[in-house]
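FAQ: What does the model actually see?

It sees only this:
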Amino acid sequence: MLRANCEHLRYAQSMERRHAKSIAMLSLALAAASVAAAHPDSRCTCRNRDGTKYELGQTACIRVGGASYLARCEMELNVTTWRKLRDGCPEA
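And it is asked to produce this:
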């Protein structure tokens, strides 16, 4: 009977270790997923022709060759770029 109790205790300890490993792996996977889903680095900026920096998501009036348009600073293929929203700029 003592031998059966020892085997049961070893089995229980083995299961506890397996559960602990499973929980640790799940925690790491969730942490990695949250890092991947985090917002882009705030150091990523777009620059207007006058040198003004804009963070991702900000909009600006871009003037090129006599034409102007409203654009938003976005990330495309790991490079910041201006995405044209519409022709012309809002009047202040």
